[in-house]
Amino acid sequence: MNIIIINGPNLNLLGKREPEIYGSATFEDYFETLQSQFSTVNLSYYQSNVEGELINKLHEVGFDYDGIILNAGAYTHTSIGIGDAIKGIVTPVVEVHISNTFGRESFRHQSYVSPNAKGVILGFGMQSYQLAIQSFLA
Q1: Residue ranges in the chain whose pLDDT is less than 50
Q2: Fewest CB within a 10 Å sphere: which of 6, 60, 115, 131?
Q3: DSSP letters along 21-43, please?
Q4: Secondary structure element (H or E) that encloses residue 133, with its range
């Protein structure tokens, strides 16, 4: 099984950015944990702060992979283009967020990803990614 995790803007700052919300671990460290925990899954990882690069990656993997785990970061709430990209591919997408976006600012309550996603997992910290992987294995 081939699953890719795609992270959007500012998630390259995990471990440094707002540790009270996002924790103190880097995503790269956590990704190694996921690879070891799900050793039978071919996990890959991509991160970009650029909306068009995220759309290009969705197009690139959206017909060949078994699953996409997408944390579009702030683009979740602003990018019709990312929502349309998900609508245009066949690989199922699980939307994830580290924080509970509904417990934060009201602009974070809108998602252009959710209507096109297989499911949404939010508010479980980095474990949100683990839960998303498990959803593809169930």
Answers
A1: none
A2: 115
A3: HH-S--HHHHHHHHHHHTTTSEE
A4: helix 127-137
